[in-house]
Amino acid sequence: MQDKIQTIANHYGLQHQLNKSVEELIELVKAIQDYSFKLGMYDDEISTEHVAEEIADVIIMLDQLQYLLECKETVDL
What we know:
Number of helices: 4
Strand content: under 5%
Helix content: over 70%
């Protein structure tokens, strides 16, 4: 998996992946807000699936940023 993350990160480059990371973070915030709203309304149809998908997208982007910024050791502290 790490090889794939590095290949994608190298292909798009730092600037593009910084912008993509912001986009994915915004999508996660929106998914959390929607989930929270439905939770507050006691919605019987509530599902964590969308939030989980957005978390996965953010984790992938953060892995790429750690690689591109060479800061994994600092983040792991």
